[in-house]
Amino acid sequence: MKKTELKEYKLPEKPGVYFFLDKKGVSLSFPKKENILYIGKATSLKDRVGSYFSSDLINTRGAKIRSMVENAKGLFFVETGSVLEAIILESKYIKKYSPFFNTKEKDDKSYSFVVITKEKFPRVLIMREREIDDFHEAEIQNRFGPFISKMELISIMKILRKIFPYRDKCKLGEKRGCFNYQIGLCSGACIGKILEEDYFKNIRSIEKILDGNTKSILKSLESEIKKSIKEKNFEKSAELRDKIFSLGHLNDLSLIKTNNLINKENSESVFLESYDVAHISGSHRVGVMCRFEIINGELEYRKSEYKKFKLVENKNDDLAGLKELLERRFKHTEWNFPDIVVIDGGKTHLDFARKILEGKNINLVSVVKDDKHKAREVLYIDTGEKLKKENYNKFIILANEEAHRFVLSYHKFLRNKIKKS
Is 167 helix (H, G, I), strand (E, B) or coil? Predict the structure, then answer.
C-alpha cells in the first residue's frame, strides 16, 4: 500500500481503531476475518496511520510491520469517542480476529489482561497470559484482554480505581486497612468498611467499562444523583458528580503518547502550568497547580512538582479564588516560572488573569468548556513569545483536565477529613 492512497480513506484526527487489510477499496461494512492483517489503536487516526508510511518505519517498528504495510491493500477504521474506548476496542478486536501480524509481532504469552477473581469480594488484577495459566479456571470470575501495552493498561486501571475502588492484594478480615485503603484506592473490604452489594456495584461498573459500555455507567450515575438530590443527600451527589467528571475524561489523550504535534525538527522544551479552584458554595475552598513539560512532541507530567493551596473561606467567587491562587504561586520566585499558564474559564477569566501576570512574560491560555464540562475552545493571550496554537491545543486541554481532576481529588480528600473529624 502507498501513502498516496491514504487520501481516499479521509482518516479523521480523532481516536479510533484501524485495520490494515489484504483487500483493496473503501468499505463501510466491517471486514471479514480472513482479510484483516493488523489491528491498532490511535489518538489521531490520521496521524497514526500516516506514521506507517514514514521512511524510517523499519527502525521504529521493525521488519515485520514493514512487511505488513507492504502486503496491505486497503484500510478500515472505527472512530471512537475516547482513547480509552479505542484501547478497549483494539483489545476486543484482536481477541476476536487474531490478525496474523498482531500475533506475529508479539508472543501471545506477553499480552496483558485484567482478571477479576471469583470471591466474596473479588480482587482485580493485571496479569500476563502466562500468569493466568497458574490460576484454576474456577477461581476466575471474568477477564478482559488482551491489551498490547501493559503500561497503557496500568494507566487505565489507575484512573478506574480512583473512581471505583477495589482490592487487589489485601486479605479480608484484617484489623487495619491496607495502604491502598489509606489513599482511597481500596474500598475497605479488607476491614469490612463496605457492604458486599456496594462492592459488587464497583466491580460491575469496572466490567462494563472494560467491555466498552461507559455510557450505561454514566446514565446510572446520573440517575443516582437525581435520587440523592431528592433525598437531600448533597454529600453523596457531590461524590457522584466527581465520578461522572472523571469518567467523562477517560478520553485522556495521555493514555497513548502524543506524537507529531510539534514539528519533529523542533526539539524545544516548554515548563507548562495549569490551575484550577474548587469549593461548595464558598466553603472548603482549595486551589491547585499542576506542572508539565513538553519535550520533543510529548507531554510529560511533573507530578512531584504539583502544589495544593487552601484558600480563604466563605467567598463564593471564582475570580477571587483564581486571584489568590495565582498571587500566592507567583510569590514563590524560587519555583521556575512557566512558559505557558493554563486557567479554566472564558474571556472574563483570561482578562482578569492577564492583569495579575502582567510583566511576567508568560503566555496565558484559558480553556472554555461546554455544558458537559468538555473543552470547547482554547483562548490565547501571547504575553511572551508567539505560540503555534495548532501545536499546543491538545497539550493545553490535557493540562486543564489534569488540574481539574487533581483539584477535585484534593477537595474530596479535605471534605472526607473534615467529615471524619
Answer: strand
Sorting pLDDT into bands at 50, 70 and 90, what band is 257? very low
pLDDT band (50, 70, 90) for residue 417: confident
Which of 125-130's residues contact partners 24+ apart within 8 Å by CB, and which partners?
A: 125/168, 126/150, 126/153, 126/154, 126/157
CA dihedral angle for residue 51, residue 54, residue 57, residue 60, rounded to 10 degrees: -60
**Distances, alpha carbon 300 to alpha carbons 149, 255, 290, 330, in Å:** 18, 12, 11, 22
**pTM for the whole thing?**
0.54
Distance CA 361, CA 333 (A): 14
Please, are residues 321 and 279 in contact by the beta-carbon 8 Å criterion?
Answer: yes
pLDDT band at 106 (very low <50, low <70, confident <90, very high): low
Q: How many other CB atoms are found less than 10 A from the CB of residue 94?
A: 23
Residues 135, 163 contacting (CB under 8 angstroms)? no
CA distances from 288 to 147, 309, 414 (A): 34, 6, 13
